[in-house]
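Dear Dr. H.,

I hope your travels went smoothly. While you were away I took the liberty of generating a structure for the chain from your last submission, since the lab meeting agenda had it listed for discussion. I wanted you to have the full record in hand beforehand rather than looking at slides cold. The sequence, exactly as received, is reproduced here:
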Amino acid sequence: MRRPASGGMRTFGTLPIEDALKVQKEKPASMTKNSNSKNLQKKQAAKEQGEQKLWAFVATQNQTQDANKRLTFGIDLGDRASCWCALDAEGEVLARGEVVTEKQPLEVLFSRIPKSLIAIEVGTHSPWVSRTLEKLGHEVIVANARQVKVISESNKKNDKRDAELLGRLARADPKLLAPIKHRGEAAQVDLIAVRMRAQYVELRTQAINTVRGLVKATGQRLPVCDADSLNRTHAEHLEPAVRKLAEQMLGLVEELSKQIAKSDETLKQIGKERYAKEIGQLEQVKGVGPVTALTFVLTLDDPTRFPKSRDVGCFLGLRPKSNQSGSSEPEMRISKEGDGYLRKLLVQCAQYILSKRGPETDLKIWGMQIAAKGKKTAKKRAVVAVARKLAVLLHRLWVSGERYEPLRHNRGLAKAA
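The corresponding predicted structure, in token form, is as follows:
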């Protein structure tokens, strides 16, 4: 029997592909709304059911008053809502749920729960969330997401699973989470001023590079000068059509320079009022200015949390990576972990110390010896090595309160000078 010429090949009980796609496109909006409302209802029902189980367990625990049955929570922090998973003393999932990522909902939920172990991942919300939970008496572990590959690189990643894994790792061995310690609330607020200045500088650099590149493409050039002194007058020699456009960008550069100057005054005021002693100790080293000193103090916050000053270099990502296996131990780049902005400032200080303008110090002599061992790559290694040793030196001066001796290990040069 011949097949019908129209409609193409049909599978029994199904529509042609074109018709099926057409039906899918013409799906009424009411069906989509219904499906969304059903999903919301399911989520709300699951949330209520999880909280009911949790409150039932808490009520039982309050009656028995058994301190050994401490709960373990894993919280996967989200920008709007966060998933939590509660594990009992035997490691079984007791309840799951969601909570709005705001202070009041978190306080309402966890204030009713006995003191528990709570694991969260480091992120935008982790500083204030950890402080909020600690004020309620809970023990909080902030996991280093870069080190917990079982979560960050999982091929079955979702919020519920991540929350459960955080809880299980915290319950088994907190060290598996490579826990970190957040700086205090006051230091975090002061650090905002440092970050704002850094953003102004970055925007100004981008604006200057943009206007120089665009003018250069027309066969003309802006004069060479410092970023602080670049303004509209430097475009007077340009052709009229180009000058008008260049002046608009240079006007933006002027405004950013004014904001940077205001930020510098703000940082100086913060340093004088709250960190005068610490900054005075660090500025003994030539090349370390008030911005670098204040950023160093605010980033480390508590110097006593580093048992050895050498640990500061590792904390700031200035140590080389390691991939040793058997007799193979390849030379690798630095890890670049920790605070990138402070690392950048330390590298700039190291470049000044190794330059002709830098005074003769033990640090410079040691760095020049490394730079003399090779060509261009050796100079780069020397800069990173001096930045790492500078971080160690600054921490040591901060902790000990000692007077800095630039030529402590080369006293012969000091006497000659």
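Two observations you may find useful: Residues 29-64 form the longest helix (36 residues). The chain has 15 helices and five strands.

With kind regards,
E. W.
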